[in-house]
Every structure is written in structure tokens, then in C-alpha cells.
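Weekend entry, working from home. Most of the wet-lab plans are on hold until the incubator is repaired, so I used the time to fold the two sequences that have been sitting in the queue since the last round of cloning. Logging both here for the record. First:
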Amino acid sequence: MKINQLDLFSGIGGFHLGFERAGYKVTSFFSEIDKHAIAVYKHKFPKSTYVGSVTNVRGSDLPRIDLITFGSPCQDFSLAGKRKGMGGERSSLILEAIRLIGECRPRVFVWENVKGTFSSNNGEDFAAILQEFANIGGYRLEWQLLNTSWFLPQNRERIYLVGYSTTTKRNWRGVFPIGENGRTTSSAEVKQIGTKLDSNGGTQPYQQDRVYDSEGIVPALNQGKSDLILRVKSATSQGYEEATGGDSINFSQPNSETRRGRVGKQKAQTLETSCNQAVLEGYRIRRLTPIECERLQGFPDDHTAFGNYDGEVKVMSNTRRYKQCGNAVTVDVVQAVAERCKPLFK
């Protein structure tokens, strides 16, 4: 199934890769302003076309676009941010995406954003966004809150909204709901988040055990259990949370008196751009590696390791890799949405 995709706020190509894994042959025109994310996208998808900042993209300059995807900047909607909502400079960029939907009239568009969009300004921001989508005319809208933990061991709740033509047949079942058990995993799709072999056939020292799970959900962070129980300061009634082997620990703002939910039981918490997460392994605490962060987002190993800078391939720093993974959409979730969208492209 061949499609032309306009990938806005493209990051490192999670939407592109998710649709590819669902069986689409994707030709991408991508828009991004972070030069390091652009470099990764060019390196991993060399046949794609960079089209500049979203504010400069015009539908008249593009070929026929079948799909528009966008995970527009979410800091102003985030529960962890300053909650400026649609009044924030970054979150208002969604209006540029809505403009391009009107100019390109794709068959389908998919928007991803943080859970806090639902509650921003008492729900008024989400209502305003829905109204803007409705004002385009000719599209039916569906949305659902999906969690990466249904597919991979990371608790990451995100809104996915899909728009498609109102001329779709009435017996169309719709894209949503996608349930926690709504996507079966075959034996060929077993998730592995564990050992990575090096070029000499040995294992890298920071990953010691292979952990398999047929559902790809549970204890993939478990690198070797122990009887150690670590008490982590948290704003609970006890004043702490308990972590055991394989649990993740969020060490952001360690002296905060109000933070809670610091311990993720056998799964990672939502990846952030600075990766302030560690895992309790044996009798030590170690930070998650860039490869683990890639896997927790559904990307292949070393997806962010290199970038193409104007034809020169360079190694990406770990700091940049953490940021790119934290900003990305989860490939497995996109794939599940893309699979349900297939009838819309026939």
C-alpha cells in the first residue's frame, strides 16, 4: 500500500516507522526544526524529503499527500509543564498542522499529544482544537487515550486522534477503540529488551540477561532480581516507595517534598528528554542506556546513534539520543493505529 506522508514535527520518524511496520510503503516529506532529529531522520530514511519548518510548508508545493501525521509540541499542555495551553507559543503550532490539513486534504491525519491536553484550561483547549479540526470540513474524528505499556514496558499515556473522510461507508467499524488486549502478539513478534551482542559475539556489559515476554509488556527491565529493597523518597503517607530488582526509579528533583510515583514496578515510567530514570539491578542503580530508551519506544537498536549532517554521517551524543527518544512517539502504538486505518486507504 503506497502512500505519501507529510510528517510534521517529525522527530526521529516514529510515525514513518510505525506505518511501515503496518505494511505501508511510505514516501515521506518531513518537517522538523531540531537539526539533530533532522540528521537522524535523513540517516534512517534516506529517500525522504526535508521540507523545512512547518510555518514555511505550503500544500501547493507538495505532491498529493495521503497521510498527515503530527505530534505537535506538547509542553504547554503537559501536566509537568506550565500549562499555558493553546495560549503557549509552542502548542499553538498545531494550528499550522490544521492549516496544512486544509491545504493538502489527505485521506487520513493522525495527531498524538499528551494526556494533559484533555484537562488543559478545564478542557477548553481540547474543545477548541476539536472545533478547529471540524472547521476544516469533510472529516470525521475519533480519538482515544492509549498507553505504551499495552505494548512495551513503559507507562506512557498519549492521546491519538484520527481524522478521515466523512464519505467513509456507514458500516465502517472505526479506528478505535484499541484495547489493552486488542492487539495479539504472535510468536514471531516476541519482544526482547535485554542483551545486545557486540561485533565480537560478546555481550555489552550494561545488558546482562535476555528477557522475553510474549505480550511485550512485563518484566523487560529485569536484569537480575535480588532480595534488595530500596526505599526511595516520595510524597506518600510512608514518605517513601519501595523498589526491588527490575523496578525503574525516577531520580528527577531528588529532594522534592511533593513528588510521588518515583518507582515503576517492572516497567519504565514515561521517558523524558533528559532520561532521569534508572533501574535497580542486582545491588546497584544504573541509568537507562540509550539503547534501552530506543527499545522502550519501539525503535531498533542504535536508531539514534548516527545522523546525516548535509551528507556527513556523525556519531550522536548520548544526551541528544536521550532527548530524541523522550520526544518521540512510540512506534508500536503508531503501528496499532496504522493497522486499523488500512481500510481508509483502499
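Second, folded right after the first finished:
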Amino acid sequence: MPDSPALKFDEQGLITAVIQDVENGEVLMVAWMNEEAVKKTLESGRTWFWSRSRRELWRKGDTSGHVQHVREVRYDCDADTLLVKVTQEGAACHTGERSCFHRVLEPA
């Protein structure tokens, strides 16, 4: 990727991507990107991910209509995790919830 840092992808060629609402900081989801998904995300302004189960690229919102417009992509100090700040249209979670982190784990 020209003009990109030396991102550290794992042994499967993936990097963790934390997706965050640019307006309020809410964490919407966590997904995985390969080098192509990162490139397509940066070029298109929409989020692209690698599906570990289907073993294919997918663009968020193509089937659900719940599009993520990328406002900024940051990487952490180890260059092995991305923070993707987005404007979210509709739900981010496949369950229909705005965030995948809508459940609370209660202490025993």
C-alpha cells in the first residue's frame, strides 16, 4: 500500500479493525481486514472487511443498507490494530442493534 505505514497483519494476513462512531465515540463493531480491504476502505470511503467464515471480501451495507462512511482511519502504536471512525447509517450489528456491544456482562 503506497503512502501507508508498515501495518502488521497476523499470520492469516488480517488486522483487527475497531469501528467507532465519529460523532459520539461509541464502539460499533470489531471486524477484520486484509491488505485489500484496507486499500479499498481508504480508496472508497466505505468500510470493507474480510469475512473469516465466508473467506471473502465484503463491503458493509451492500446487503443491509447500513452503510459506514469512513471519516478517519488511525492505527495503534504497534501498527497491528486499526481504529476506523465512521458515520453510521442504520444499525452496525447484524442483529439490528446500532452497536454489536449492546449486551452487558453482569458479575456473578
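Plan for Monday: verify the second prediction. The longest helix spans residues 35-44.
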